[in-house]
UniProtKB/TrEMBL annotation:
This is Uncharacterized protein. It comes from the Eukaryota.
Length: 50
């Protein structure tokens, strides 16, 4: 099936938007994991200092 240039543009823009959303989601997840790791590290350091 042949797509019009407009269809192709819309598909390309939709794909780019999806890529941005997925990238943002990965960043948010990574930041969350970093915070958990930092909290665990602080807890370990606190236990070590006791």
């Amino acid at each position: 099936m042949w797509s019009s240039p407009t269809d192709l543009l819309v598909q390309t823009q939709a794909r780019a938007q999806l890529d941005r959303v997925q990238h943002h989601t990965l960043l948010v997840e990574a930041n969350g994991r970093t915070k958990v790791a930092e909290d665990q590290l602080r807890e370990l350091q606190g236990n070590f200092m006791k």
